[in-house]
Design brief:
By secondary structure, the chain is α/β, with parallel strands linked by helices. It has two domains: 137 residues, Rossmann fold, CATH 3.40.50; 42 residues, no CATH class. The protein contains five helices and eleven strands. A six-stranded parallel β-sheet has the order 5-2-6-7-1-8, with helices on both faces. A three-stranded antiparallel β-sheet has the order 10-9-11. Strands 3-4 form a two-stranded antiparallel sheet. A hairpin with a 5-residue loop joins β3 and β4. α2 runs parallel beside α3 and α3 packs parallel to α4. Bound molecules: zinc ion. The site of zinc ion has 8 residues, from α5.
């Protein structure tokens, strides 16, 4: 049975690196993969980049209106695996389309993404929430907070101060310094207190 896998982790845990490793393993055995990512993530064009070097051009970038089941049925029916980067930006419908790909086309789909946005308090990302609900197989990719404990949260820092409101995607206007840090819940609350 082909499965829908969700591999989640905070920023900097090496999600894209793992995705590229899986692609490499398939191709080393002479099998084909299809690597996709949402067009929402435009910072690197159609490329997947990792902090430690390896990169790869995607097979296609999709927008929020694309039917992934239809696209894959048409052009990628013969691949052995579909790999999705930045899967938190999928719509709920697109996650269901990926699930349909595993059932009807019998192609395994591995989706990599964040579990929760930086605001912490609302519903998070539609794609991640739906993946947590329907994926066959869910696993965390772990990373470490500045204090040494396990980081589970993605925090946005504007000019060195943590912020918990604003849009999902912040366009860099060149004036303020935008950073994301993976923190443990204790450090998240510590930053929240300090900023008050
Ligand atoms: Zn911490």
């Amino acid at each position: 049975m082909s499965k829908l896998y969700f591999r989640y982790g905070a920023m900097g845990c090496g999600k894209t690196m793992q995705l590229l490793q899986v692609a490499f393993n398939y191709e080393e055995r002479g099998q084909k993969v299809c690597v996709i990512k949402p067009a929402t993530d435009t910072k690197n064009g159609d490329k997947l980049l990792t902090r430690i070097g390896p990169e790869r051009v995607t097979d296609f970038c999709f927008s929020r209106d694309d039917d992934l089941y239809a696209l894959v049925s048409k052009k990628y029916k013969n691949v052995d695996c579909i790999l999705v980067d930045e899967a938190q930006f999928l719509t709920k419908e697109q996650v269901d389309q990926l699930l349909k790909i595993t059932i009807k086309l019998k192609i395994p789909v591995m989706a990599y993404g964040l579990r929760l946005n930086f605001r912490m308090e609302d519903g998070g990302f539609d794609g991640a929430t739906r993946l947590l609900q329907v994926a066959h197989d869910i696993e965390e990719i772990k990373t470490i907070c500045e204090c040494g404990h396990k980081a589970t949260l993605n925090c946005r820092f504007l000019n060195g101060k943590m912020v918990v409101d604003g849009p999902d995607i912040l366009i860099d206007d060149g004036k303020s310094k935008i950073e994301y840090r993976a923190l443990c819940p204790a450090c998240f609350y510590k930053n929240l207190e300090e900023d008050k």
